[in-house]
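Quick note —
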Amino acid sequence: MSAKKRIVLLTQLMLVTFAISIVTAVTLLYRAEIDRVKNQLAASAKSQACLIEAMGRFDAVHSVDYPGGPIAATMSQIADAHEHAQRFGEMGEFTLANRVGEDIVYQFCIRSDEFEMSD
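Predicted structure written out below.
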């Protein structure tokens, strides 16, 4: 094999190795970022749940005379907060439901610029 062919072959091998390295690095970085965002969203959801539970506990004690009872008081506060909050953009969504026996009853859903509250 001539020296010129060896140089071409080695150059091609280096380019393939470089391409594989780049693809591997980008894939690993992408997966790491997806995991980071997933963990951040899970933490945010848990934080929201803790806040809503705390509001519910407070209302169970201090909002007994609220029209509709303590649950209605909590729901109205959550609805008010989300009506005045910055929207999620095109892809965001906030849904609140409660369990009634074996059923899930949706109280309200906020998706992008929509806001709906159930009866």
